[in-house]
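Sequence in, structure out. Go.
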Amino acid sequence: MPHIAVDYSATLTDTFDRQGFAQALHPLVAKIADAQVSGCKTRFRPLDEIVISDGGTDEAMIHIQVALLDGRTPETKLELSTAVLALAREHIAATPGLTVHSSVEIRDLDRASYQRHSS
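Output:
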């Protein structure tokens, strides 16, 4: 825990430093959300087909979802989403002529029903 999913336009494959992002993200999330780095899990999902606005090819997106066990305050979630968004922008190289739309969502996992197992 936390579980992090990163959806990104496949056009960002060569300009998005995913490993660097994850390595910087895990301690950031652990610090702000009072979690353990060892519990952070991030998966990256390239999106081959997206449509933004009028469907032009000059736009790309990255959406980051951070799922945490419930109980964090709205202020903590806002601080985390702001920090994650800034970190993501640091790990995407500028591409002339390409607008990158970035967003972050912090969501709760219900403690009463969440289960996990490691072997």
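Check: The chain has one domain: 3-109. The longest helix spans residues 74-90.
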